[in-house]
Amino acid sequence: MQLKQLQHFEALYRLRSFVQAADAHGVTQSALSRSLQKLEDELGQRLFDRTTHAVEPTDAAEGLIQRARDVIDGIRALEEEARQLRVGAAGHVRVGTGPYPAQPLLTSSIQSLSAKHHGIQVSVVAGTARDLLKALFGRELDFVVCDMSKYEDTPAAVELEVIELPREPLVVVLSAEHPVLAKEIDLAEAASYPWAMPTPAPIQARDLPRPFDEALAAGRFPFYRLETTAACLELVKAGRAITMVPRSLGKLVCESGQLVQRDVPARLRTNDGIHLIRQRTKSPSTRFLIDEIVEVAARLAEA
User: Fold this and answer.
1) What angle is formed at CA 152 by the lines to CA 149 and CA 158, rounded to 5 degrees?
2) Confidence label for 84 from pLDDT (cuts 50, 70 and 90)
3) CA-to-CA distance for 75 and 226, rounded, in angstroms?
4) Is pLDDT of 237 > 60?
5) CATH architecture of 89-167+271-302
6) Top-level CATH class of 170-263?
7) 3-72 classified as CATH 3.90.1170.50
8) For the chain, which residues make up each domain, given as ranges?
């Protein structure tokens, strides 16, 4: 049994397409088919039911895919360890992120990582909690940094290892010309104004004063649902909305004076964690980046 056979098995299981799986590994469809046939012969199990329209994994494939992925991850980590011994830190980490951790938590962590281990490549993917979880279990991501509440009540929770990050205070950010600034800001009153929040919103209306419950019930919170925190801030700059972000990001975007930030009740904080597949082998690069994220998160929470 060869590693490439397991990689071909994993790719076809994940992509459900001979064309896409072959392209992913730079081989012809016939070569991929021969590789899988040989693996099936060695295992004594049929792994896929093939028709002209679909490729579906058999029960045997469902039972073996996790072990195959563990072997692939283990070999990847071993190769990276050997490469580091030979030429220094090198590798590739694939991270999924929710709206709040993207900046400055992840950007600062990557900067710190690059200063210590300049040979490590990092790819960051943003998306919905559902899409990120699917990519994590498909081994397309090494870990996901997002609000811990997104997964804690899902069936997948038992399969996840979660590293809780220090909770950073949140702040309201709004235009310096916004009428709500005419007096001391009152969150309950602010509920009557349009809010812009990333999707999925890291802050739920239940965490805010009662008027937000009413706005949520009426479909008015958030009034603007955008993909990123950056997009929300653009609407805020135009004076069209209010948003809420981690304090560290609030400080950055308010430096020009065009935007201002205001404190909110102390209970309103980030709720982020690092989500990994339990017992999955972590590559050295993955461990290095996780260490940086934990360190940076602690620093931001205390700043």
Assistant:
1) 160
2) low
3) 40
4) yes
5) 3-Layer(aba) Sandwich (3.40)
6) alpha beta
7) no
8) 3-72, 89-167+271-302, 170-263
Residues 247/172, Cβ–Cβ less than 8 Å: no
- For residues 33-59, average pLDDT: 89
What lies within 8 Å, CB to CB, of 43 at 6+ separation is 60, 64
Torsions phi, psi for 287 (to 5 deg): -65, -40
The first and second tokens of residue 122, run together, are 């990092």
For the chain, the average pLDDT equals: 88
The whole model's pTM is what?
A: 0.76
Name the residue with tokens 């999955």: 280
* Closest to 31 measured CA to CA, from 17, 41, 18: 18
Residue type (1 letter), 158: V
**Phi-psi map region of 64: left, alpha, beta (phi>0 left; psi -120 to 50 alpha):** alpha
pLDDT class of 203 with cuts at 50, 70, 90 = low
